[in-house]
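Morning!

As promised:
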Amino acid sequence: MTQDAKSREGVPEQPNPLMLEGIEFVEFATTKPQALGQVLETMGFCPIACHRSREVTLYRQGEMNVVVNAHPDDARVTATHGGKPVLSAVAFRTRDAGRAMARCIERGAWSATSHAGAMELCMPAIQGPSGSRFYFVDRWREFSVFDIDFVSIPGVNPHPPAIGGMGFFGLVQYVGIERSNDWIAFYKELFGFSFVPDEQRFGIMPKGHLMRSPCGSFMWQLVEPDAWALEMDLEPESLRRIGLGVQDVSEVVDKLKARGVGFVDNASLHPGDRGALTRTQLGSVSFELVHQPQP
Amino acid sequence: MNLLDEFGMDTITLAGPLEAKLAAMTDAGFAQVMLSARDVVGYPGGVSAAAAAVKASGLRATGFQVLRDFEGLSGHLHQYKVDIAQAMLEMCAAMGSKVLLACSSTSRHATDDPEAIARDLRKLAMMAVPLGIRVAYEALSWGRHVSEFTTAWDLVSRADCPNLGLGMDSFHVFAANTALDAIEDLDPERIFLVQLSDFMWQETPTFEDRITTARTFRVFPGEGVHSEALADLVLRLDRLGYRGDYSFEVFNEDYQQLPLNVVAQRAKRSARWLAESVLHRSAPLPRRSMSSAC
């Protein structure tokens, strides 16, 4: 059957065009990898492997992988963010990375150049907001992309359990004034994200617009600056925060507090059954806990 | 609020180097400039130095022009134009411009299939999203398949992207003899740019007439034979709710031989005519000094 025949009969496009299946890893770029590593470790992430040729460390907890990239070429981006760590990449699990990449390029994505060295894995990637990257990864079941480019740290459990069953809930992206609709169109067109009605919100940070991945396993939140704060809020568009889903927010808050994690707790925002927000570390790093019922 | 704030000039109207053009515009009292890629790429020191010059001038970038013949192509021609579009978008962003002007295709290789054209415009809009740029699609009056703003609007609507809108150019509206009633069908929020100019004769029946007139003998609003129609066009846009920028895109071989300040003063006279006699904008009241207030 040809493409034309499909269009003629008005068959709707498949709801998950990239065959997304979740988030494989999230990457920070930083010039202070030790300091960021400490923040991640208080949150329960453990360093388990180092990149073969670059100054990059893999942290893991449960199903979540967080990459700390301090390679000079990649960490340079922090200069445009006041030297603070930057969420520089998100890798999406997909059934076919090459096909996902090709579809995005066909629809207007910008290809991101590969950093891979000799004998290293070349992951297809497109450009995200402010020079960030969206990778596509299709090798995560039988073996991991980390098995190729990373060397395990001796004596470390490569699969540390997650505190309170934490898992990726989603990403928060800061966008410019009146830019939400542009980005909503972008994520719908390229990734097949769907818009979540304003009445449906999760956690304690409900501002902005919410989208859901077509695989249903993570959310994407877009937050514009307040119009009244425009002159003060000069932060460029960026990936801003990771959301972590947990079944029992209070239990996880207690466990993290015991590890030294501070939470925002004031008259307008405080930890509750729906969620909690960690205090910002290193000028830009915070995590949002979001209540996520057991599936 | 300055009376001239909503009007600006295109760099293509003036002769000379970019900095002299910017100086002539600021001296005439304009606050914005429509930038041409030719002025930018030919600037000593390149694009970043040109961006610094625009920033130093204090002029706001109205937009950046012009991407040509993008839509409706296929195969290697399409891929070639994607590369060109990306380069234009990068320059547009580097210049601090939030609007890229894209003209309807004149290529005989371009399809007339509206679905394919809309798909390409949608792709262009998606390419512009990460850079924070809006794409203004303008109907050239000699466009191969899209020569009137009504057709361009249909395609913009079909593509349905928030950062894809219409660029209107009074020259092409008059040259194609498009009825102004159709303006009422437009969404003012999706008109991203209005370029204004007139010309000295009534009819441009052939594409060749339109091309020659457009490239050599445009004049400023109020100087040509379509002043009433141009005033009508601007008033209709204003009534519709359009509150965006107006820029004077005046290709004129005589103006290319005149001192820059002379041409800029003609532009200023045109802006005052539009602001005061057509739109009846109020001049800002002089601020009372503290001493007189006490």
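The beta strands of chain B are 7-10, 32-36, 60-67, 99-103, 134-138, 164-169, 191-196, 198-199, 218-219, 246-248.

Hope this helps with the figure draft.
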